[in-house]
Amino acid sequence: MRVLFLQQQPCIRSLKYAAGLRSASDALHLAFAYQGRSLGGWYGTGDELFDEWWRLGPDVAADLDDVVERFRPDIVHSHNLPDRLTVLALELAGGRFPVIHDSHDLQSLRRTPYEDGFPEPADPVELERAAVEGATALLAVSPEMLGEMRTRYRLPRRHRWFANFALAGDLPPELPDPDRPVGVPPRVVYQGTLSTNGGHYDLRRLFRAAVAGGVDIDLYPSRPSPAYQALAEEVPGLRCLDKLDPRALLRALPEYDFGWAVFNPALNEAHLHTVLPNKLYEYIGCGLPALTMGHRAMVSSARAGTPAGPPPRRGCRRGRWTTCWATGRSTPWSWPCPPPAMPRWPAGHWMPASTCSWRSRWPSPSTTPPGSARRPRPPGGSSWWATCCGTTRRSSPWSAWSAPAGWAPCATCTRTASTWAGRGGTRTPCGASLPTTSP
User: Fold this and answer.
1) E strand or H helix at 17, and its extent?
2) Residues in CB range of 153: below 8 A, 6 or more apart
3) Which of 47, 109, 155, 393 is 20 to 30 A from 417 (CA-CA)?
4) Residue 338 burial by CB count (10 A; 0-12/13-18/19+): exposed, middle or buried?
5) Distance between CA atoms of 243 and 223, rounded to whole angstroms?
6) 24-29 — which CB contacts under 8 Å span 24+ positions?
7) How far apart are CA 278 and CA 221, in angstroms?
8) pLDDT value at position 303?
9) Cβ atoms within 10 Å, residue 206
10) Are 140 and 132 in contact (CB under 8 A)?
């Protein structure tokens, strides 16, 4: 089968697809038509996965027509953004071959341009509709994105979502044992795109706030970022490091305590509710809890445990994933989640269950220390669950805490649970039923 990948700037998702296809079959002939840099030019690897590379010039329509006639694909797999190349492929196909539209972003949910070095198309929303409704089959990165498409457009009969899973071959074969002493500030890592346009990748203010709260953050930008280099020189505790190729990056991540998946919601909050970014799965695959805000796709994935990554591997003692329902300074963590001064969340407040989600790697049932929780002071007299369960990879602050009177232990998972008076009922993170208690 002859498969033509199509994308303005080849991305890591297409590299992962190609690696998966190569591992599954030797009977594929893969080619890539693109405009920017090849995978090797952008990530330092990936060109070897394709048999042919075709660069599209300024006259994209004519060049793509030439590629189609010479390569004669059995199928075209087109990635956005932008959606323009999918629309061109559909026009050229004329029913001769299927065109898959792989949607990474919905431009209709964004208020900032897609930053890949190319000018924005004049009619992005119309192109989005044409690509989604005209495609032979549709892929999205999350069920939330698929749901947003369904409310706007007529979806093709074949459609599904497929997450940005990490490549098993790139994950470290062994994870280091927990070794962070209690009381030592956690080390946080961010990897990926950084920008200064006020969009969701403009993280300068958030990094400042987190470092001021007592954490150290290392940045691995996916492209040179002078603005963040300057910020790192100005802010102690923040480092902007050299770019690494994908495999080397994943070998470096296990040395940290948390992976940063917090984004700036000021302009693109609707978009952020639909994303399950590559970095989320790569953090989890490397054993790191992922710090994030209350965006629907990431929170629902955390709660449902879908799909949090590949099955546990030899040497990976990652157990179940749970959700932290309490945020603010009062949490018994060495730093709050989200950090102080995070937009819309005043420091020291406790938020409802839908607000914040983190994932914690439990070493194993036999070595998990009993969890603890502190009774919060909810703003406005409201009441909700305020149970924090879990340990960080390298720090076990729970061992320094004891459950207050009235907090019932859970025999199923050895953690604690509680209710506020008037809430009714008692539940534990593992779902076990306990008698009602009211501390």
Assistant:
1) helix 12-24
2) 129, 132, 133
3) 393
4) buried
5) 7
6) 27/1, 28/1, 28/2, 28/3, 29/1, 29/2, 29/3
7) 14
8) 66
9) 21
10) no
Give the tens place of pLDDT for each residue, 320-366: 222 232 222 222 222 223 332 222 222 222 222 222 222 222 222 22
CB 380 within 8 A of CB 369: no
Q: How many helices (H) and strands (E) does the chain have?
A: 12, 15
pLDDT of residue 11: 94
Q: What is the dihedral of CA 56, 59, 63, 65, to 10 degrees?
A: 130
What H or E segment, with its residue span, contains residue 6? strand 2-7
Domains in the chain: ranges and CATH: 2-162 (3.40.50.2000), 170-400 (3.40.50), 403-439 (no CATH)
φ, ψ at 33 (rounded to 5°): -105, 130
Give me the pLDDT at residue 372, please: 30
Opening angle at CA 244, ends 238 and 247, nearest 5: 125
Say how far apart CA 40 and CA 21 lie, in whole Å. Answer: 18
In sequence order, the 6+-apart residues with CB closer than 8 A to the CB of 7 are 14, 32, 34, 78, 79, 85
Could you tell me the CA-to-CA distances from 406 to 8, 19, 192, 291, 330 in Å, in that order?
A: 59, 53, 45, 30, 19
pLDDT of amino acid 146: 96
Q: Which of 16, 33, 193 is nearest to 116 (CA)?
A: 193
Rg, C-alpha atoms of the chain = 23
Tell me, what's the pLDDT at 341? 28
Q: Tokens 């190349």 appear where?
A: 85
Amino acid at 97: F
Tokens read off for 219: 């940045």
Query: What pLDDT, on a 0 to 100 scale, did the predictor assign at position 20?
Result: 94
How buried is 239 (Cβ within 10 angstroms: 0-12 exposed, 13-18 middle, 19+ buried)?
A: middle
pLDDT at site 304: 57
Q: Which two tokens stand for residue 129?
A: 């509709």
For the chain, what's the residue count?
A: 439
Write b or e for each residue in 274-304: b if 16 or more Cβ atoms lie within 10 A of its Cβ, otherwise e: bbbbbbbbbbbbbbbbbbbbbbbbbbbbbee
CA distance 70 to 88: 16
Half-sphere exposure for 74 (CA within 13 Å, toward CB):
7
Query: Residue 416 in contact with residue 370, Cβ under 8 Å?
Result: yes
Residues of the chain with pLDDT under 70: 117, 178, 182, 303-439
